[in-house]
Amino acid sequence: MKGYYFITDARLSRAGNVSDVQSALAAGVRVVQYRDKWADDAALIAEARLLRRLCQGAFFLINDRVEVALAVGADGVHLGQKDLSCREARRWLGAGKIIGITVNTMEQALEAARQGADYLGVAPIFATHTKPDAGAPAGLRLLREVRRRVNLPLIAIGGINQDNAPAVIAAGADGICAISAVVTRPDVQAAISGFQRLFG
Length: 200
Hints:
Distance between the termini: 14 Å
Pathway: Cofactor biosynthesis; thiamine diphosphate biosynthesis; thiamine phosphate from 4-amino-2-methyl-5-diphosphomethylpyrimidine and 4-methyl-5-(2-phosphoethyl)-thiazole: step 1/1
Helix content: 25-40%
Number of strands: 9
CATH topology: TIM Barrel
Binding site for 2-[(2R,5Z)-2-carboxy-4-methylthiazol-5(2H)-ylidene]ethyl phosphate: 128-130, 159, 179-180
Structural class: alpha/beta
Number of helices: 9
CATH class: Alpha Beta
GO biological process, one term: thiamine diphosphate biosynthetic process
GO molecular function: magnesium ion binding; thiamine-phosphate diphosphorylase activity
Radius of gyration: 15 Å
CATH architecture: Alpha-Beta Barrel
Protein name: Thiamine-phosphate synthase
Number of domains: 1
């Protein structure tokens, strides 16, 4: 989970999900989360299958949709607070799949850990326009507290850019995601590589 964590965004992307994922993999990304809240089920599954084939050597996760993850043979899912619980998702997916949970509070982080989450997405760290329903920024203080109290990989998401990413990493993030700072750029691979270098 260390390094840049890639999430697709078809609405923000200049080149499309397939091209973006290819660029992310070329930049050395090890985790790709497929998120598309606008496509119908048939289109979603078709594109997910294509992306799954591309992600050899990288973990391929589906956002929210456990049934899609099962249908395409994904490595796991990433769930929000309004989705299935981690415990319920584990019953569907089995012990060998990855389950990540987005958390906005310390209580949510502790509960996700109790339920057996494999990693946490701490979000939003800063104000973000990518996900309007993300809620108030959690800030670096929450990230530091979760790092201190939970022994799981932490992915920081929300409002992250090249300027504030070093502080996010210093606060304890194992990985970072900066959707608009990457997929809106003309060279997605170069943008991701810039973040990857921050991890040494």
